[in-house]
Every structure is written in structure tokens, then in C-alpha cells.
Amino acid sequence: MHATSAQALVSQGNGHGAPPCQSCHGADGGGQAAAGFPRLAGLDSAYLARQLADYAAGTRANPVMQPIAQSLSADERQAVAAYYSRLPAPAPPPTAPPSEGIGQTLATRGRWSRQVPACEQCHGPGGVGVGANFPPLAGQPAAYIQAQMEAWQQGTRRNDPLQLMQHVSRKLNADEVAAVAQWFAAQPLPAGSSGQ
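^ that's the sequence the OP posted. Answer follows.
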């Protein structure tokens, strides 16, 4: 599929049930924090393609994304993933940085007494992401991060490597999940970062 076709998918949809991606994820791929729609720009192509395939297969449940992913062909899913991976990650909207507390502690040091490793051990320093399995958390909407943690806790999201997130998320309470989500949402991406 050509780049122009990927651009058409993002801006116009495919005419077979998939609406324009930008209607939720923004023209720049930056997402919509208020609605909890994640940033896609600059994410790893293989990660994005796997998420779309998992939505299509039902491995990752979401009432909005499942039918959209199912209406995209495998080639269209790959094209969209490649398109967004090439976009620069826009700066997240300014948010008041959370005070140092449990969110920062869990993100940077973990809680080993409860077998909770630091989020940064997999997602990289500052949560900037590591390859195709550990997406960036920095600058993602807090509502999105929190919703994903809750999905792993409830077992409605199961597509993490070795069930790491299912294990970790179930050891956190609601206040801890919210604190980690808010801390990462306030973290800036490094200058020139593609989010990977």
C-alpha cells in the first residue's frame, strides 16, 4: 500500500466501515487527552500493527477499536501502523506536574515488597518506550493509561508479553493506578523523540 493510501485511511477511512483514524487520534496523531484517545504518532510500527491485529482478532477488547480494526485489511493495518510510526510525536499538552509521590515512586523505583517493578524497567527511562513490546507512556493521556491498567486488572486486555502487565497491574490499587497514569501523562518526551 502506498503512503498516499495510508494518508487516505487516516484522513478519510476505508469506505468499508473504518472511519478516519484522525477523527479520534487527531490529524497529527497526538490523540485526544480529554477523551482518553492515545497518541499514535511516533509509536513503534510493529507495536501498532500488533495492537490493530489484536483488536481485529479480539485478543484486545475495545468496543470502539474492535469493529474498526476488523474492517481494515491486514495490509491496511500495516499501512496505518507504518504511517503513524513515521510521524513525529507532538508535544503533549501542558499539565501540572504531579507532586512527588506514589506515582513517581512506582514509575521510577517500583514497590519490590509487593513484587512491583518500576515501570521504567520495561518502558525505559522517563517512560519513553522500548521497541515493539513496551510502548511509550510519557505524554500519553492519563485517562488512557489508567483505562489500560484497569483492562489488564480485569482481564479484558491480555496481549502483553508474558502477561507482565496483568501481573503488575493486579498488584496496584485504584489510587496507585491513577497516580502512575497522572505521573506519566505529565512527563515530556525528549526533544526530537519519536517516542521509541
